[in-house]
Amino acid sequence: MKKIAQIIENEVKLIEGQVGVGFKDLKSGEEYYYNGDERVLAASTFKVPVLVEFYNQVISGKLNLDKRYEVKEEDITFGSGVLKELKPGMALTLKDYATLMMIISDNVATDIVLKIVGKENVNKTIKSLGLKNTRVMMSCKELLNDAIGIKPTDDQETIAEKLTNLEFDKNAKCFTDYEDNDVTSPADMVKIFDLIYNKRILNEQACDEMLDIMKRCQTNWRIPRYFPKNVKAAHKTGSIAGVANDAGIVFTEKGDYILAIYSNGPEDDYAINVRGFDFIATLSKKIYDYYVSR
Length: 294
Fold this sequence. Notes:
Blueprint (H helix, E strand, L loop, with lengths): L1 H11 L5 E8 L5 E4 L5 E2 L5 H13 L8 E3 L20 E3 H10 L3 H11 L1 H10 L11 H9 L7 H10 L7 H4 L6 E2 L1 H12 L6 H12 L16 E9 L2 E10 L2 E10 L9 H20 L1
Antiparallel strand pairs: 1-2, 1-9, 3-6, 4-5, 7-8, 8-9
């Protein structure tokens, strides 16, 4: 673990901004954290506890994976995903929405799932899991509207103008509030992935299904970017103006490990934090290379 710590600390010196990293060897149980308990902006990694609560309600019988929900005009929001590009009225299954939420980080699908399961239930489950720094307080639409300054009192012309310009306000609540916001910590994300991997929450089938969905993640330019093609990762990325995150499980022939990397860049990265993406991918590859060469 000393070498893993050294790799992480050396790479962190090369990146500006707020950084948090969590690592756990699932074979030995050894862990290392850099700012592990420091609360960070979750961005789309908040979708992991949403997925857990989704399956919690599935196994309790409250939700049916095959039930269909019709997308409505008010469900549409901007940002990542494909459903925003399609005409409202389509009716996919709840499992489809949960899958789109995770594999392409679809914001419309996420907000549909979040509306169905309820924020209060997500946060209740988060608390029951002992995730002390994690909150899910904003939907994707609420978060993104806040980021570009859309207010409930805005008329349609003003909203259209803000959506066209897409100018992020670095002082918005979604970027500055670490309490009443979508937040987490590297240690919390390592813990939730550990619980899923070891099937210590929900039941074995639910954990297997969640891992299967996350193994099919298509936003793979961070943790898995430089991996050999046969190496799988069950992970969830997150990004919003300056924020670059990725957390998940890496499966190797030498054993499996959890890696959670959170980066919030300086002011000049308040667009897409490409340097953060590169930092995550490079750090991930260096950890992988050492792990499989021991």
